[in-house]
Amino acid sequence: MADAADTPMLSARALSCARGRVRLFAGLDLAVRPGELLQVAGGNGTGKTSLLRILCGLSEAEAGELMWRARPVREVRDDWKAGLLYLGHRNAVKDDFTPLENLRFSAAIAGEALDADRALRALVDIGLRTRLDVATRNLSQGQRRRVALARLLCGTRAALWLLDEPFTALDAAAVAQLAGAIAAHVRGGGAVIYTTHQPVDIDVPTRACVNLDDYAC
Amino acid sequence: MNWESARQFWEMGGYGFFVWGSYGVTALLVAAELLLLARRTKQARALATQDAALARIDAERRSGS
Amino acid sequence: MLSVFATVLRRDLLLAWRRRADVLTALGFFLLVTSLFPLGVGPEPEQLAQIAAGVMWVAALLATLLSVTRLFESDEADGTLEQMLLSVEPLAVIVLAKVCAYWLLTGLPLVLIAPLIALQFSLSPQETGIVCATLLIGTPTLSLLGAVGAALTLGLRGGGALIALLVLPLYVPVLIFGAGAVDRWRAGLDVDGNFALLGACLLVSLAVAPLASAAALRIAQD
Amino acid sequence: MSEPQSSAARLPGAPGFNLFHYASPQTFYPLAGRLLWPCWLLAAALCAIGLYIGFFVAPTDATQGDSYRIIFIHVPAAWMSMVVYLAMAFWCIVGLIFNTRLSFMMSSALAPTGALWAFVALWTGALWGKPTWGTYWVWDARLTSELILFFLYCGYMALQAAIDDPRRADRAGALIAIVGAVNVPIIYFSVKWWNTLHQGASVSLTAAPTMATTMLWGMLVMALAAWAYTVGAALLRVRAIMIERERHTDWVRQLAQGGGSRT
Predict the structure, then answer these.
(1) Residue B55 sits in which domain range?
(2) Taking CA atoms, what residue in A is nearest to D2?
(3) Which residue, A125, C104, C149, C161, has fewest beta-carbon neighbours within 10 Å?
């Protein structure tokens, strides 16, 4: 068995994706290893979000092979699903719930145990100390984004994070905090694939970048 | 042969309205469907030829520039 | 498996509790439709008693269809539906929990209010009992089949009418067995057949509908 | 789960014959083109023979006079509406299992013609009912289930029309077609059961005239004519769907450059 460190956590071969009748990209090869940070770059509409949705299994690629730890994803579906955490443009929080309830329910739905104490600490760290029992409906866009991001801070078991423009609507402090969390996760042997429109400095040893413009159709 | 004259055939034993009502509407519907299909095929062809023209223009642009 | 079912059930009930007003729409609709019929058909008790079961069943059926879009729409809008699709837990179990919560909020209230309507239609106590029993077994099936329609038409324009067109043909057997029970009883025949068939419809849709809805959701979110 | 892109995807161990050869639109398009005219000619010939039998060979019925001749279009239409719906469900199942786009296109191509037959069955049933039972609409088990089948067709087409993304339209349509197909027998038997309960209120169609052999032949030939017509219409429509859907591919572009001839 190849050394565990360099077998890619998630790899894709000859991936192609079409939205409706338009083909976005084709022939895309991609791999991310434990302890690696991968940014997906490309202009608007080149398929960044579509790529992330394919990598996490929400949508199906038109063609190409997806492998989780060098095994086809069909065979290891549960490990693949358990191993990743996807955060899209929408925050996946319910407006009628308080931040704490949101955190607890989203962890439960993902099938993850959530330690109440860590959840509280995550919410305090992300700066929602005074909003714990306020319905998310009354929070600002930035605060709502923080509730979604709090999941990353409370010790999720997911090894691979797929973050679609995680820094939008965040102020400087939150951006720094999130960058730190990503760096810590990557240094701890996890992996992160993310997209961003604003340059963010994330302090990690190995990083890579895939530009979808090179694979556009 | 059941009918002596065309007129008798048309009356269909007094049930002409119902029999020809059924066959007539069916014939109309089938004709309508065929017309719609012909139109749709023509439109689809037009799309294809438009694409072909576009491809040719792209090819010229690429080879020209 | 069981814990995620309980969690999602509790979650949806809690959400509905936070928006108590929404729950009343299906109930209000049911009350309104059933009380309009006497105005249209005329107040003679015998006539009303004859059409009572049919009216109540059709009203229950429409009330279910009216609010079934609520089942997935709000979760799809805020992105929680995506997280459900990504969960390790089987999606069919999550969908089943959501449908159970939905039935508790729209189906069960109809059954509980049905005796009141039966009085309006001057049904005898036994007939009222039969109607309520058939509704009790029938409305879960309506909710389950409605969920398939809601999942198929997620995010489509004209969703409500489209769901009715897709799902009403599938409601026909349940409507016939359910509404037919009182008629058979009034004709002096036994009604065990109706309950057996309603039970069969319920079990089949319990087995098939969550899987179909889960597949439809994956198709919708693709 | 990648789709068998090229037409050369072979089933493991399949000898020379390749099941998937005609599964890709590119190779099926010319084949469908070649089949069109034979279908139309066959349909026209069979229809002519069927009508001849129906009107000139079949005797006038003792009880119903000549109004019964409507069965030569009513019964074939009812059969076809059922057969086409089952064919649609079949193509949808094949499409879901083998993930071949063409099977879904075939199912969408069949739907309008199936709906046409269901409507014709209802229309001719009503016109036949009037002289025979005095009313245009009889709540007979078969007519009622035909009506519901017509709604199932409308549901399928409405759902496909409401979805823009062809991939989702295919799979959502497939799901409702399969669920509908499973329900058709259940609906039929529940309506039949309901019909016998209210026997007093209506007369069922079982009182059809005794089946003289010529009548049976007439209906059979007309049914084959309807079948040939349906295949022709579906092939013509599927060719149009293929072009509409595969516009971005180069085989469609070459097709257009080749003057879009019959190939």
Answers:
(1) 37-65
(2) A63
(3) C161
